[in-house]
Every structure is written in C-alpha cells, then in structure tokens.
Amino acid sequence: MMYYYKRKSSPLKWLILIFIFMAMGAVVYWFYINYFSKSDLNNSGIEENVNKIITAPKIISGEIAIAQGEVQINIGDKGYEKAIIKAVLHQGDKIKTGADSLAVINLDDGSKIRLAANSEVIFSNLEEKNVEINQLKGRSYNNIAVGSAYRIKALKTQIEAGASKFELITNDQLQSLAVLVFENNIKLNINNDNSEAILFSRLDANEKALIDLKATKKDQLKIENFQANLLAKDEWYKWNFELDKGSAENLPEQEPNFEEITDSLQIKAEQKDAGVNLTWSVYSKEDFQSYKIMRSTQNSEPKYPEDSVIKSSDNKDLSGLLDEKIEPGNKYYYRICVLKNNDKVACGNVANIETAQKDSTPPSKPNLSASATVSGINLSWTANNEDDFKEYRMLKSISNPEPSYPSVGYLAIRKKGSESYLDKEVNITSVGNVYYRVCSLDMDGNYSCSNVITVENGQVK
Questions:
Q1: Bond prior to 302 in cis (omega within 30° of 0)
Q2: Which ranges of 327-411 would DSSP assign to H, the alpha helix?
Q3: CB atoms < 10 A from the CB of 301, how many?
Q4: pLDDT by residue for the chain (461 residues), tens digit each?
C-alpha cells in the first residue's frame, strides 16, 4: 500500500499573504485619493493650460494725434504716403517727419511718442506690455504709460523703460546719441557689433547720457546732470512739458534750420606772428553737438555747411584757435557755428581781418667767420637785430662749394642771441673739403645768406 504525505500549510504563510494584499490595496487607495479623486473630471485644468498656450498676446496700435508739416507713414511696407490725423499705425509700420515738421502718436496703452523734425521710427513690436520701437534718426520725446514694458533701439543702443518720460536724440552720421530722463528712470545698454551688451547704466530723472560709438569703450558713455527748468526756454521742451501737464494749446514754433545768436559764439580775431588768433564765448545751451569754425575769403556772412570749415570739435569748452594757414594781404571772414543735436545750426557774429601785406625785403646778410680746433670747427657770425627777424639756419655741404638755402639741408637752427655754432664732426685732423654758410630768415619767409667758409683738410681757407 502506497502513502502520500500531505504537508500542512503554515498559518504564518497565510498571514504574510494577507498582509501583502492589504498593503497593495492601501497603495491603490492612496493613489486614487491623491490623483484620481483630486483631478477635475471635466478637464477644466487642462483647458486652462491649453488656453494659456494658445492665447496670443494682445497687439496694440498707435493713432496719429498731431501731424504738422511734412509727415509721412509707411503702412505694411507699401511705401511712404502723406500722414493724416487719426491714421492708425500697426506693428511693422513706419513714420517720418521732414524739415520743420513734427508728429505725435498715441498708443493704445496710453503711451505717447512725439517726433521732432527730420526723425524716423519703426514700430517693430506692438505687443501689449512688450513695445519695441527702432529710432532710425532724429529726435523723440517718450511719455511711457504706467505698467508698459517699452524698448527703444537706436544705432547700437537700447533703452528699457516702464512708466517714465525721456528724450532720445540720434545722429547716425556721427554715430552719437543723447538720452535725457525727465521722470522716473530707465535702463540703458550699449551693444557691440554682435548685439552683445558691453556697457550698462541706469539713468535717473535729471540725468543725461552722451554716447559716442566711435570712441573707445571707456569713453563711449558719459553721464551728466541737467536742469529741466532751463530746457523749458526751448520751444520743443516747453511744448512737451505742457503736453505732459495737459495744458498745451498751440503747437511749438519749429526751430529754423539756421539762426543767428548773440548770447554766445561771439568771436574776435587778432593777427599774430604765427597766424590769426580766434577767441569766442562758448555755446550756452544743452543741445550742443559740435563746433564748426568757419572761414571765408569771399562770403562776408559765412555759415555752416555752405562755407569752408577749418576745424570741427565736439569739445563744448573749446574757446580759441590759431589759424596758421593764412596768406598775407588777404581779407578773412571768421564765424563760429554750432551743429545742434537735432542737426539745426546756430552761428554767432562775423569777425573779419585783413592780414598785412607780405614783406619782400630780405634781411641783412650775416658775416660768417670760423676757426679750426681739435674740438671742431668754431663758427660765428654777426647778429641780425631787425624787428621781423625769425631765425638763423646753418648750412653745411661736402660737395657743393656754394651751398644755398633751401636746396641744401640745414645743419642747425639758432635764434637771436645765439650767433655761434661748434661742428664737432670736423676738426684739424679731418680730410677733405667742407663748406659752411649761415642764412638769416624773417617772419615773411625772406632770407639772405652769408659768405661761404671753406675748410680744407682741417684748415680754414
């Protein structure tokens, strides 16, 4: 008979299995409570996320509120045409002003952009709270609404602003800019050729930045303080300040391209031995860009840019210049003009001067003598005591027995009171011939030369 042994099940085994099943149930229940039961079964959260993804940013527009003079707009890149009041500008559109013109554009977000004469801008991006404007040239006054995120670019410079008031003046020819802040503050970046920011600054109210992109990095940015109340004397600023207050009634009179002023740039001309010395009173306003020193022999009223510029300078403190390139017996008309930040021109009075006729009489001839020593050849000559005497020039030649000025190069120059010279290159042991001569020169370039001294094999003949 065969028996089968049946092993009894252990109660511990069943307890372990029951515990495992209970643990798995607890995990499933926890997962259900924390994920499924808290999920919005109508997918409202999903819809909210979808809405966030597919909702496009709001695009605003600008409306022309004022267009005085020659104002043109380019809608949809279809070419420029005359602008009219209430014309609407959209993203990508352009607007420009001509000479003696201005424009005001009101954006939907409450910001206002005002363009002076000879200005041009592109509304590159008009997303709400993400406005970007490229200023190609000219001058703009920007009154930015509360909460706006606003960027304005010009040349290699970018301005970032919230609620603020500031002006941007550009000169694309000189690669220079000026930024003046009137309320709150802005951020200013200057970029390199790769559009990477290399200089950063914050400008507060009553601070201005002067930017010269042609300068070295350390000199590209200068920040100064200014007084806004002094600017209010200018019609452009006065009008903008009144518009900001809501009290402007009339458009400002447009600044002429050229004006004569008497409060500065008053010039005086005086003839000196070396030329005509010019002095003037420095320019007194904040819109200075550069001096233009004018000279004419034909026009008694020279002005920039019609007449010749003998010097340009962006140093506002410059107050004098010596004009050495003059001819005797000529009449010269001088004037100091200023090229302003808006490319307008202001000039002061005209100073005229007639240079003296050239003296053609040569100075008296010096009498040259010499002696030979071990140390060299001692040369001495009679002094010239004439009023217009300038200098002596010592000539030396080893091949020309009659050295002449100016064809023979000079050995040395001596002033009045120094009527001697020691040539250490030649002495009593030298071999060969050397020829010496001294010439007197006057202020008008006349000259006369002395007798010739010949040194032969170290001996004076």
A1: no
A2: none
A3: 13
A4: 333 333 344 566 666 767 777 777 666 666 555 544 433 434 444 444 545 555 678 899 999 999 998 999 999 999 999 999 999 999 999 999 998 899 999 999 999 999 999 999 999 999 988 899 999 999 999 999 877 789 999 999 999 999 999 999 998 778 899 999 999 999 999 998 888 888 889 999 999 999 999 888 888 999 999 998 888 888 899 889 999 988 755 566 667 788 999 999 999 999 987 899 999 999 988 889 999 999 999 999 999 988 989 999 999 999 999 999 988 889 999 999 999 987 889 999 999 999 877 778 899 999 999 999 999 999 999 999 998 899 999 999 999 999 999 888 788 999 999 999 999 999 999 999 999 999 999 988 899 999 999 999 999 98
Distance CA 203, CA 299 (A): 45
How far does CA 53 lie from the centroid of its chain? 45
> Phi/psi zone of residue 415: left (φ > 0), alpha (ψ -120 to 50 degrees), beta?
beta
Q: What are residue 309's DSSP bridge partners? A: 294
- Provide the token pair at 309: 């510029």
CB 96 within 8 A of CB 80: yes
Cβ-count burial of 242 within 10 angstroms (0-12 exposed, 13-18 middle, 19+ buried)? middle
Pairing label, strands 368-372, 197-204 = unpaired
Going along the chain from its start, the domains and CATH numbers come out as 62-245 (2.60.120.1440), 258-354 (2.60.40.10), 368-460 (2.60.40.10)
How far apart CA 358 and CA 212 sit, in angstroms, is 44
Tokens of 272: 């000196």
Other C-beta atoms closer than 10 Å to the C-beta of 35 total 9
pTM, two decimals, is 0.50
| Gap between the Cα atoms of 89 and 97, Å rounded | 15
Residues 188, 202 contacting (CB under 8 angstroms): yes
Cross-strand bridge partners of residue 143: 112, 165
